[in-house]
């Protein structure tokens, strides 16, 4: 009896992994987790914020409004050559849960219009992209995730490159496609932007060059970039979602 | 008490522990190891599946569903088994030191989780390796300490008459 139970438990664990990996992603289970644990996370986030007091709430609301305006006016305009601005809508959200340094939960989900693979930013710069949207919460994959890569453009020289996460350090690694491109500590890095603004819209600050790596004979120019947004102390963020009604 | 802790552990993990800049313990793994130590391998195995599944679907987790569940079910089973020990010829079972089993169970859970994450392609191995030492240290330290306290409490309760033996 006991042996059967143990075998059953182990077997169901294996079945879960196999089904999720090969047959179909177990979306209903994830949605249930988002509904139960995500809702509690949002509720606790709301309570801790309201304890913070009225003044903090007002400051956040102002920041929120500014963000929205900034975003709708479009950071895209600073670069006329960028893609045609698609109709976007800003959804403001709070970060309520933290994963193991690579991803966070926000308290807005598909009910608020959040979908997969759209840009998340805050007042300082790029935060990441939505990796999964549940009913009431969504998961954000941060730009420091070693699996993330963002198309980048130097703000001054216009050189193109890719920014990827570096494991464990909270920094990013920039690779410029032109090995002879001018690069200095303190240079600003912006997002290049993708077609339709997914996953990343153009013209959002990613960070500043902190240290240039000199690898003799390398095919690309690499440097370490400090993110503009403080990714270890995130609170208010905005999600740029496509708005078909506009 | 421990079952309740198992259910809220995924929440505490994402709300408090992961916020800390110095790393933190894996609370779900700890809950499973403690349950296995105080209630035996079958409890440990079932608790591992339930707690691991909860951890797998608690946002912002985005790995394979069932990965943590499977790993913790195995850990719970092994930790419980080892704790009980083999029955000696005289008919008495010799229990292992809870401090040691708690530490080993916690280490096993952490290492297996990192290994499974890499094997299933949820994390690049360098990222898993970078986070491992902190989590391992915290989890093993807490696992050893609290296991010893739990077992001592259970023993003192068993010494008293008319107290349910299996409740820890």
TrEMBL record, chain A:
InterPro entries per the record?
A: Cell/Rod_1 (IPR042177), Cell/Rod_MreC_2 (IPR042175), MreC (IPR007221), MreC_beta-barrel_core (IPR055342)
Q: Which Gene3D superfamilies match?
A: Rod shape-determining protein MreC, domain 1, Rod shape-determining protein MreC, domain 2
Where does the Rod shape-determining protein MreC beta-barrel core domain start and stop, copy by copy?
102-240
Cellular-component GO terms for this entry: plasma membrane
Which PANTHER family does this chain map to? CELL SHAPE-DETERMINING PROTEIN MREC (PTHR34138)
Which keywords fit this entry according to its UniProt record? Cell shape
What's the protein called, per UniProt? Cell shape-determining protein MreC
Q: Look up the record and give one Gene Ontology term from the biological process aspect.
A: regulation of cell shape
User: Where is the secretion signal located?
Assistant: none
Write down the Pfam families for this protein, in alphabetical order. MreC (PF04085)
Q: Which family does it belong to?
A: Belongs to the MreC family.
Q: Which organism is it from?
A: Nonomuraea polychroma
Per its UniProt entry, which superkingdom is the organism in?
Answer: Bacteria
Automatic annotation (TrEMBL), chain B:
State the organism's lineage: Bacteria, Bacillati, Actinomycetota, Actinomycetes, Streptosporangiales
* UniProt keywords, alphabetically: Membrane, Transmembrane, Transmembrane helix
Q: Which residues cross the membrane?
A: 100-121, 127-151
Q: Do you know which Gene3D superfamilies this protein is assigned to? A: 1.10.1760.20
What is the name listed in the Swiss-Prot or TrEMBL entry for this protein?
Rod shape-determining protein MreD
Q: Which domain of life is it from?
A: Bacteria
């Amino acid at each position: 009896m006991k042996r059967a139970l143990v075998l059953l438990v182990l077997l169901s664990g294996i079945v879960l992994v196999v089904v999720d990996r090969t047959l179909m992603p177990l979306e209903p289970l994830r949605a249930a987790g988002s509904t139960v644990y995500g809702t509690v996370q949002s509720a606790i986030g709301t309570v801790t914020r309201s304890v913070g007091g009225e003044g903090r709430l007002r400051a956040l609301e102002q920041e929120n409004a500014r963000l929205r305006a900034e975003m709708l006016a479009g950071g895209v305009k600073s670069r006329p050559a960028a893609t045609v601005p698609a109709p976007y809508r800003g959804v403001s959200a709070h970060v309520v849960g933290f994963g193991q340094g690579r991803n966070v939960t926000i308290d807005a989900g598909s009910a608020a219009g959040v979908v997969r693979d759209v840009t998340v930013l805050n007042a300082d710069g790029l935060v990441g992209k939505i990796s999964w949207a549940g009913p009431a919460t969504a998961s954000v994959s941060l730009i420091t995730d070693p699996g993330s890569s963002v198309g980048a453009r130097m703000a001054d020289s216009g050189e193109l490159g890719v920014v990827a996460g570096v494991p464990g350090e909270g920094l990013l690694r920039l690779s410029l496609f032109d090995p002879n491109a001018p690069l200095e500590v303190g240079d600003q890095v912006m997002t290049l932007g993708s077609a339709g603004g997914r996953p990343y819209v153009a013209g959002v600050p990613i960070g500043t060059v902190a240290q240039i790596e000199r690898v003799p004979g390398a095919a690309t120019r690499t440097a370490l970039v400090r993110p503009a947004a403080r990714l270890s102390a995130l609170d208010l963020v905005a999600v740029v979602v496509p708005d078909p009604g506009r | 008490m421990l079952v309740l802790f198992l259910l809220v552990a995924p929440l505490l993990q994402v709300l408090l522990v992961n916020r800390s800049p110095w790393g933190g313990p894996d609370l779900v793994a700890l809950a499973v190891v403690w349950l296995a130590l105080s209630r035996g391998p079958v409890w440990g195995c079932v608790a591992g599946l339930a707690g691991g599944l909860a951890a797998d679907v608690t946002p912002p987790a985005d790995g394979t569903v069932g990965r943590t569940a499977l790993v913790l079910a195995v850990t719970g089973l092994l930790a419980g088994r080892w704790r009980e020990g083999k029955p000696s010829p005289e008919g008495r079972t010799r229990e292992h030191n809870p401090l040691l089993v708690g530490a080993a169970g916690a280490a096993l859970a952490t290492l297996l989780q990192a290994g499974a994450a890499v094997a299933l392609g949820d994390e690049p191995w360098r990222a898993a390796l970078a986070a491992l030492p902190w989590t391992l240290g915290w989890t093993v330290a807490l696992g050893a300490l609290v296991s010893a306290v739990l077992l001592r409490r259970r023993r003192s309760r068993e010494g008293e008459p008319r107290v349910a033996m299996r409740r820890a």
